[in-house]
């Protein structure tokens, strides 16, 4: 029988975070949902049977303290850096630097702060463990107007490789999952079924449709599992073949 692990998922109140949490719970693991929205994360955790952790991931002291709270109960075994924002769109000639900086602060600095805190936590415990970052194929395939977000996800892929090579000696694996567009409740609201916008995206994808949340979670669970014990430093596209076009 596999020993249950404790999984910490940032951005846990969002659609992808909840989908990943459900997949880990179904495989017998314990889940901690972290999110900056305290009310939303408590609600999501209660619905799933997970633990809620209000957390600003850009605050490195708060990130370090979050892991300390779980030391007495055995610590955190897996970190899923899912939190990220796509708060603005804008052309390179129009986007304000302050708007660009806001995305970088969450998507890059937040991912780094959590990665660093988890690595220190695991090294103090004797090593081992896994990190799975949620990146995006946008880090490799540009879309006009989305450059700030896509730049941040290219950096997430770079952080993944950097952490993987440095933490390997401690037995800590670091990988990423890079989705294309995912049909979260928020995206479905902005691109309803039958809309020209959704059809345009689907036409870019060889498999002919946008990903469901349930298409992303299995890749995350796999990369965090013993089945991937010899895999580190990769960014796995889950994009229906979009990077082929």
Structure description:
The protein has one domain (6-232): Rossmann fold (3-Layer(aba) Sandwich). The protein is 43% helix and 14% strand. The chain is built from eight helices and seven strands; from the N terminus they run βαβαβαβαβαβαααβ. The protein has helices at residues 15-26, 38-48, 60-68, 97-124, 147-167, 185-190, 196-203, 213-223; strands at 6-10, 30-35, 51-54, 78-81, 130-134, 173-179, 235-238. Helix 4 (97-124) links the parallel strand 4 (78-81) and strand 5. Helix 3 runs parallel beside helix 4 (97-124). It starts with 5 loop residues before the first strand and ends in a 7-residue tail after the last strand. Pfam families: adh_short_C2.
**CATH homology superfamily:** NAD(P)-binding Rossmann-like Domain
Q: Judging from the principal axes of the Cα atoms, what is the shape?
A: globular
Q: What is the strand content?
A: 5-15%
Q: pLDDT average, as an integer?
A: 95
State the CATH topology: Rossmann fold
- Poorly predicted residue ranges: none
Q: Helix/strand-derived class?
A: alpha/beta
């Amino acid at each position: 029988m596999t020993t249950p692990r404790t999984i910490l998922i940032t951005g846990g109140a969002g659609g992808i975070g909840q989908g990943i949490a459900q997949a880990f719970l179904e495989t017998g693991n314990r889940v901690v949902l972290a999110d900056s929205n305290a009310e939303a994360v408590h609600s999501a955790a209660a619905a799933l049977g997970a633990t809620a952790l209000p957390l600003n991931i850009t605050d490195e002291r708060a990130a370090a303290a979050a892991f300390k709270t779980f030391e007495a109960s055995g610590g955190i075994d897996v970190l899923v850096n899912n939190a990220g924002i796509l708060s603005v769109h804008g052309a390179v000639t129009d986007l304000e630097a302050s708007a660009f900086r806001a995305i970088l602060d969450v998507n890059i600095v937040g991912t780094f702060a959590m990665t660093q805190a988890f690595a220190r936590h695991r090294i103090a415990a004797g090593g081992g463990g896994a990190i799975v970052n949620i990146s995006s194929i946008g880090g490799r395939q540009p879309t006009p107007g989305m450059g700030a977000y896509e730049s941040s996800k290219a950096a997430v892929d770079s952080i993944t490789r950097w952490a993987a090579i440095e933490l390997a000696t401690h037995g800590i694996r670091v990988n990423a999952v890079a989705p294309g567009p995912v049909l979260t409740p928020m995206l479905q609201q902005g691109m309803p079924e039958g809309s020209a916008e959704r059809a345009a995206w689907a036409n870019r994808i060889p498999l002919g449709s946008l990903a469901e949340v349930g298409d992303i979670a299995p890749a995350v669970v796999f990369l965090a599992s013993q089945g991937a014990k010899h895999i580190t430093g990769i960014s796995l596209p889950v994009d229906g073949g979009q990077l082929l076009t």
